[in-house]
Amino acid sequence: MLTEEDYKSGQVLLIAKPLQWTSFQVVNKLRWEIRQAFNIKKIKVGHAGTLDPLASGLLVICTGKMTKQIDTFQGQTKEYTGTITLGGSTPSFDLETEINETFPTHHITPELIHETTAPFIGEIDQFPPIFSAIKKEGKRLYEYARAGETVEVKSRKVTIEAFEITAINGNAIDFRVVCSKGTYIRSLANDFGKALQSGGHLSALRRTKIGDFKVDNALSIDDFIAQLPKE
């Protein structure tokens, strides 16, 4: 069992984030639980890469002196699995917002789906979603989006190391992606739909790896709390 000094000197915790939780909420919860367990007023806790509330999977949480390594972990390659649903697009590129455009899908074959992954592999220019936390002139992009304001979003260079189709169930396309820091899988889903001469949005997402860290080795929030010392 880890001690108060262990957490202060620095730990890397692998946590499986559940759906609907923000990454910030997970950090706050763990910080509070560690403080309660050891009756301490302050301890540094941070995460190495945000996951959207509608995504589940691996969060790398650093405590104490290991928070200085957060930038290193954030820069590592990430792996995701998920589902792109074809035939409709949303303003947020996922299910945070409702479908606002529908498109034909009758022309899309399994062969075309597999072939269309190729142009996305390698270094690509990607536009982040307008519903994102990127700042522009002091405000988050999603603040402009929710206010109905239009702003120019600049593209970024990201690297997709692997984009593999793992299952096709009608318009639901399961995938595995290995990518660089800064890649938006929501944008990939939207762009993939366009490349198929249709539309698409991200309907499920799970982060499975960050560098050498795997979600298979992660604890649920409840399991982490259960192994803390009790008064």
From TrEMBL:
It is an enzyme of class 5 (isomerase). The keyword tRNA processing applies. Its EC number is 5.4.99.25. Gene3D superfamilies: Pseudouridine synthase. Residues 186-226 form the tRNA pseudouridylate synthase B C-terminal domain. Signal peptide: none annotated. Coiled coil: none annotated. It catalyses: uridine(55) in tRNA = pseudouridine(55) in tRNA. InterPro entries: PsdUridine_synth_cat_dom_sf, PsdUridine_synth_N, tRNA_psdUridine_synth_TruB, TruB_C. Keywords: Isomerase, tRNA processing. Transmembrane segments: none annotated. GO terms for molecular function: tRNA pseudouridine(55) synthase activity. Residues 36-185 form the Pseudouridine synthase II N-terminal domain. It comes from the Bacteria. The keyword Isomerase applies. The active site is at residue 52. Belongs to the pseudouridine synthase TruB family. Type 1 subfamily. PANTHER family: PSEUDOURIDYLATE SYNTHASE TRUB1 (PTHR13767:SF2), TRNA-PSEUDOURIDINE SYNTHASE (PTHR13767). Responsible for synthesis of pseudouridine from uracil-55 in the psi GC loop of transfer RNAs. This is tRNA pseudouridine synthase B. It comes from Bizionia gelidisalsuginis.
